[in-house]
TrEMBL record:
The keyword Transmembrane applies. It comes from the Eukaryota. It comes from Lottia gigantea (Giant owl limpet). The chain crosses the membrane at residues 7-25. This is Peptide-O-fucosyltransferase. The keyword Membrane applies.
Amino acid sequence: MATKKSLCWYVSMVSIIISMVVWNSKPFITESISRNPVDIRNAMSHVKKENSQNVLPILNKQKKINEKYLVYLCDEKRDCGGWGDRQRGIVSLFILSLVWKRTLKILISTPCDIKPYYKPTKEYNWIFTEEELKRLRGKRNKTLDFMGIDEPLFDINLNSSEIADVLYIRTNCYHFLPIAQKYAKFLPAYLKNKGRASVFRESWNRIMIPTDKVLSEVMKIESSGVINSDAKKSGKELVCAHLRTGLTENLYYDYSGFPPVAVTKLWNYIDGHFHNKSRIFVATDHLGIRKSAISKYGTRYIGSYASNVHPDSMRSNLTLACRSQESAYVDQLMLSKCDVLIYYRKSGFSIHASYLKTEWRNIYSIMKNGKSTFSLEEAHYN
Ligand SMILES: *[C@@H]1O[C@H](CO)[C@@H](O)[C@H](O)[C@H]1NC(C)=O
Ligand SMILES: *[C@@H]1O[C@H](CO)[C@@H](O)[C@H](O)[C@H]1NC(C)=O
Ligand SMILES: *[C@@H]1O[C@H](CO)[C@@H](O)[C@H](O)[C@H]1NC(C)=O
Ligand SMILES: *[C@@H]1O[C@H](CO)[C@@H](O)[C@H](O)[C@H]1NC(C)=O
């Protein structure tokens, strides 16, 4: 996870974003209005269509002559943070790879290889092929560590002849938006003049596709329980929350997570605002909160049942690591498919679930407010 310093910074940054409520938002959501289990794939095919209309494929061919690489690296040598940190690092390097015309590669080998869970798109094959690795043997490589320090990424000059052909970077970059803004003129239209949520979603969906293994788990959860037709008509049939307390982990910093005692207040909010036969999905790292949700909602509760362990703290047990990673991927995708999403504003995992939400409406953010309660507000993205 991030250092204390960058985390504090992050909190203030997130509050700024949240307070920048943008009402004249462009209705991106109209591009993916269908809500069925293949939503993710529909979103992909939209992306593909748009890509084939622009010049990217041509550029890709030209690049092969003297191809250089920018590689997101997460290996056993150092911590790389939770899934939220990793997602930010990947998105940041994707943006920089477009600016500097380098081929993006992604290496996540710890605690469990990412490839069984996420696969590349046609446009951006981020998996090193055997042929590429063979070709790269004689090339210069270098590894840079930018965990918790983003500044170097702003000013890095990848045009410089000094810089290695294969540049590995470890980063959990919070500042991918300022980077996109700084280099806007080098970026495609879909990343120009966009907010943080758009830059994230547009980037992410262009590179990362969940595998069938993950999608089938998501679909299983999504179709479980009883879907009430009146609740469905309300448009808010599936109500989801991500409540990260940070209390069950070996955290190296003071994480101000959701206070478990405040959970009754949240159930009251859900009761007061959504249909009383809606289904409830709650992803949390706190067993007490999960038990409370199960006893409160009974058969309306459809998950999550996943254990929630921080990836950097389970490197010693591969079975546990892979199982836990898979359920984190599944839970986040599940959260992104709900009609209503209540997310925790201090968790990158949670925030990214909201950015990836199929439709950008009915999104609420919550934030700890004192020891035992929280504040809640509606979020608006563009
Ligand atoms: C980087 O270059 C060194 C020296 O040529 C080589 O030993 C090493 O295997 C390379 N590492 C990677 C990850 O390509
Ligand atoms: C990198 O160099 C190329 C070729 O000189 C130039 O066209 C491009 O604008 C430079 N990129 C950046 C981000 O400065
Ligand atoms: C659910 O809401 C309906 C309509 O408002 C009401 O008639 C019903 O009693 C409620 N059911 C429960 C279990 O609260
Ligand atoms: C690894 O985790 C699994 C699942 O929690 C557990 O069953 C197993 O005993 C653990 N192995 C070791 C060596 O701790």
